[in-house]
């Protein structure tokens, strides 16, 4: 049980900018009653191709976009079946060509509750059914209507359910989630012609499209080592726009398909190191990015 | 697990699942609802106001209408009454839409079309190609847009002056005075000819000339506008017919001007203009790959106001790049760009009005629209407001463009590559700032027409003028020269408005 609790820190809830990787909110390993941990991670994500709609596009006026982030991720076990997760990143995004300034600052803070509702044991295997509910909001009023924006700037509610199967060291988790994104107010009046709009040019408040998400994760977890591979599919649910001149960025319909892997090594006592890699296979209004991250985890 | 805890878990599960499935349909853009108003004045002397395109309102004769006692008229009137009794939801929607004011609605349509056509070719490095653009579609850059707004507003205004003259010449009683209650509030003016139909016909023909690909859409809108006057109980069919005829005559004069105002022809190409520029370091396109600048020959267009007076307002020569004055300005742009605050970014973004928007002129048209509604202006007054404003904005653009493509002053980032801009770099030379010029002119004119909003307008105009410095795309000397130009042409326009017969 100890190693399970320790290894639940692996998956990093990093609500990175919409043009960077946003991994799954959490995994299936519960923390344990009154146990806590903190992870500090550094990540770097780059792309030079992005998707306008679903068409890959490379803009010479943008060059290569690099996003660096430092993320804090903490978990506290409120009970044996209930965890509190809080995370906050500091992000910097920069383009190698053109005249766009870099964007830098605190992004969104997220708080979530994860509840292990049911579990079934058969032989040496265990199947658990979990639910999670999270809320995220911007920490500061960052620029959201820009190619290099730190995020969309919306307040979101995130609901998930997952099935987590563990047998010996092997585990398999399937997760389905829905992120309800709230409206944002732009700095400017929207000019994009929307046939449902009776009075044109009257709005600065726009809706950010919701997304549905599916994640599958499988791997091997022991006391000292954790290794996994995962696949994530995010699909826009509500109607949205595509990246284009004059189109506000927060209204774009964002989707992607990513795969990646994680490695965790327990060093000594309560200290561990983790590494991660991911790449984008397909996307919609997002960068075709590759991401590397590494960090330390302290806790039990 | 006990039975009670199982039930508790199940209930909580269902609650969570239910919460997660509330993905309801939302509009992309939130908008407010505009109130209706009865116009504040009827302007019985409207027919005597000075016209813009026509030599006088009397140069177009509107035929005498049939008497209201005649069978023909009574049949039309009954048809309108019956139509109102059997109106459909679509008709009511159209009545409510056009009831906001025909001039205002057509200005909105013009702004939407400008935004749709205000594009630039986008280059995709992967394919090595530009994204496809329709070779038949016009590029609605600022010179194109201001020319369109000016011509549209002038045609609407002249058509309404002619209509008003005929209204009070023939005095056919409004339908409200014949015991028909109109669905939306209207000015108590004689009904023949129909002001709504005059606006619809004039606007449709002008917009179709500028956007031939949109002919079907525009025609459908115009037909709906004209019919809504019948559905609302404002006019009868003969009112509409007469208005269509007079509007067509006015548009003929307008399009004659459009064909002869030198917008599209010139012997020089822009590269030879650049070679002759009396300036040391000339502008280069900062796009990758470099692109032809926006509307280089638009400064040769015929002006609306007296061309001698306008020429006198042309900006003075800008300081050369090796002078102290220029270097101080450049340093200032860099300092502002390096320390740009969130509020400065928001101001720059709000007033940017770049690609795929209605342009800075359209932004001031939107402000004029709000003031027109606030002031409860009738159709004639609304058209006059737009006509004065847009002609001035066009002349400002023309003069500003002359300066741009005489001196070819480079944008700040061309000389100091560390200057980062918060907006996309405009693909045209810097001097003078068209944001400053347009805003100063609009402020002068709108303050004259709506003095109650002087303080608010000054605040808007100050923000608009400084916005390009915050964005990092303009120098302060360029903004100052632009403001001066705007105030000068704005004054020409207000002098015209003071003497045009409206009080």
Produce the secondary structure layout.
The complex is a heterodimer of chains A (300) and B (503).
Chain A: H1 2-7, E1 36-47, E2 50-52, E3 55-57, E4 65-79, E5 82-95, E6 103-106, E7 108-122, E8 125-138, E9 156-167, E10 170-181, E11 184-185, E12 205-206, E13 211-221, E14 225-236, E15 255-268, E16 271-284, E17 290-299
Chain B: H1 3-20, H2 71-85, H3 89-98, H4 102-117, E1 123-124, E2 129-130, H5 142-170, H6 195-210, H7 215-231, H8 237-259, H9 270-276, H10 307-312, H11 324-338, H12 342-352, H13 359-374, H14 379-407, H15 412-415, H16 434-449, H17 454-471, H18 476-498
Antiparallel strand pairs in B: 1-2
Helix pairs in contact in B: 3-7, 4-5, 4-6, 4-13, 5-6, 5-8, 5-13, 5-14, 6-7, 6-8, 12-17, 13-14, 13-16, 14-16, 14-18, 16-17, 16-18
Can you put this structure into words, describing what you see?
The complex is a heterodimer of chains A (300) and B (503). By secondary structure, chain A is mainly beta. Helices cover 2% and strands 56% of the residues of chain A. Chain A has a single domain (2-299), classed as monomeric porin ompg (Porin, Beta Barrel). Chain A has one helix spanning 2-7; strands at 36-47, 50-52, 55-57, 65-79, 82-95, 103-106, 108-122, 125-138, 156-167, 170-181, 184-185, 205-206, 211-221, 225-236, 255-268, 271-284, 290-299. Chain A is globular, with a radius of gyration of 20 Å. Chain B has 503 residues and is an all-alpha fold. Chain B folds into 2 domains: 46-62 and 81-259, Vanadium-containing Chloroperoxidase, domain 2 (Orthogonal Bundle); 270-498, Vanadium-containing Chloroperoxidase, domain 2 (Orthogonal Bundle), CATH 1.10.606. Chain B has 18 helices and 2 strands. Chain B is globular, with a radius of gyration of 26 Å. Mean pLDDT of chain B is 92; it is low at 16-23. At the A-B interface, β7, β9, β10 and β12 of A face α1, α4, β1, α12 and α13 of B.
């Amino acid at each position: 049980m100890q190693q399970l609790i320790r290894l639940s820190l692996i998956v990093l809830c990093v609500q990175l900018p919409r043009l960077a990787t946003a991994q799954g909110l959490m995994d299936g390993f519960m923390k344990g009653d009154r146990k806590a941990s903190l992870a500090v991670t550094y990540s770097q994500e780059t792309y030079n191709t992005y998707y306008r709609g679903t068409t890959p596009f490379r803009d010479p006026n943008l060059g290569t976009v690099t996003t660096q982030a430092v993320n804090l991720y903490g978990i506290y076990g409120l009970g044996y079946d209930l965890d509190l997760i809080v995370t906050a990143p500091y992000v910097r995004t920069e383009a190698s060509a053109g005249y766009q300034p870099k964007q830098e600052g605190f992004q969104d803070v997220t708080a979530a509750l994860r509840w292990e509702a049911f579990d079934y044991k058969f032989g040496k295997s265990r199947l658990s059914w979990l639910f999670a509910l999270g809320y995220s909001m911007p920490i500061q009023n960052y620029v959201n209507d820009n190619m290099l924006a730190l995020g969309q700037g919306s307040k979101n509610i995130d609901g998930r359910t997952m099935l987590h199967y563990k047998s010996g060291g092997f585990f398999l988790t399937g997760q389905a989630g829905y992120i309800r994104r709230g409206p944002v107010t732009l700095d400017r009046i929207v000019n994009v012609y929307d046939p449902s709009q009776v009075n044109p040019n009257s709005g600065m408040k726009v809706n950010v499209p919701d997304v549905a998400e599916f994640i599958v994760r499988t791997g091997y977890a022991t006391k000292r080592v954790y290794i996994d591979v995962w696949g994530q599919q995010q699909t826009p649910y509500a109607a949205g726009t595509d990246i284009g001149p004059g189109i506000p960025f927060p209204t774009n319909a964002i989707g992607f398909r990513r795969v990646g892997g994680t490695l965790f090594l327990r060093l000594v006592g309560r200290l561990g190191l983790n590494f991660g890699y991911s790449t984008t296979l397909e996307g919609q209004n997002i960068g075709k990015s590759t991401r590397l991250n590494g960090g330390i985890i302290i806790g039990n | 697990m006990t039975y009670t805890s199982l039930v508790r878990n199940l209930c909580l599960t269902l609650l969570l699942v239910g919460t997660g499935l509330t993905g309801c349909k939302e509009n992309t853009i939130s908008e407010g609802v505009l109130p209706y108003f009865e116009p504040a004045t009827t302007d019985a002397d409207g027919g005597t106001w000075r016209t813009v395109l026509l030599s006088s309102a009397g140069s177009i004769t509107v035929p005498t209408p049939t008497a209201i006692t005649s069978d023909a008229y009574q049949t039309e009137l009954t048809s309108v009454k019956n139509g109102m009794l059997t109106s459909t939801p679509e008709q009511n929607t159209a009545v409510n839409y056009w009831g906001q004011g025909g001039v205002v609605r057509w200005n909105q349509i013009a702004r939407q079309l400008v935004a749709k056509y205000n594009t630039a070719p986008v280059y995709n490095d992967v394919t090595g190609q530009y994204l496809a653009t329709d070779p038949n579609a016009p590029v609605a850059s600022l010179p194109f847009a201001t020319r369109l707004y000016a011509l549209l507003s002038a045609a609407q205004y002249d058509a309404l002056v002619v209509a008003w003259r005929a209204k009070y010449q023939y005095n056919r009683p409004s339908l409200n005075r014949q015991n028909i209650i109109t669905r939306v509030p209207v000015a108590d003016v004689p009904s023949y000819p129909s002001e709504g139909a005059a606006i619809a016909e004039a606007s449709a023909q002008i917009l179709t000339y500028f956007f031939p690909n949109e002919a079907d859409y525009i025609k459908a809108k115009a037909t709906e506008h004209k019919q809504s006057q019948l559905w609302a109980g404002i006019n009868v069919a003969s009112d509409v017919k007469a208005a269509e005829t007079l509007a067509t005559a006015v548009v003929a004069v307008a399009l004659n001007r459009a064909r002869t105002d030198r917008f599209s022809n010139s012997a020089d190409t822009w590269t030879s203009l650049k070679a002759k520029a009396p300036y040391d370091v000339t502008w280069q396109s900062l796009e990758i790959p470099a692109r032809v600048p926006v509307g280089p020959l638009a400064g040769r267009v015929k002006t609306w106001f007296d061309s001698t007076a306008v020429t006198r307002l042309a900006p003075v020569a800008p300081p050369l790049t090796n002078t102290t004055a220029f270097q101080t300005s450049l340093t200032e742009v860099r300092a502002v760009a390096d320390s740009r605050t969130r509020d400065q970014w928001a101001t720059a973004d709000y007033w940017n009005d770049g690609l795929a928007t209605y342009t800075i002129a359209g932004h001031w048209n939107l402000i004029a629209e709000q003031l027109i509604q606030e002031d409860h202006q009738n159709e004639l007054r609304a058209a006059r407001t737009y006509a004065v404003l847009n002609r001035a904005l066009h002349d400002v653009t023309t003069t500003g463009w002359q300066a741009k493509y005489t001196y070819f002053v480079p944008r700040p980032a061309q000389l100091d590559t560390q200057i980062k801009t918060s907006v996309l770099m405009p693909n045209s030379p810097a001097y003078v700032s068209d944001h400053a010029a347009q805003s100063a002119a609009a402020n002068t004119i709108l303050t004259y027409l709506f003095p109650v909003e002087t303080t608010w307008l000054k605040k808007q105009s100050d923000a608009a003028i400084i916005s390009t410095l915050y964005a990092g795309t303009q120098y302060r000397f360029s903004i100052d020269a632009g403001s001066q130009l705007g105030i000068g042409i704005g004054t020409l326009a207000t002098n015209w408005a003071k003497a045009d017969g409206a009080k």
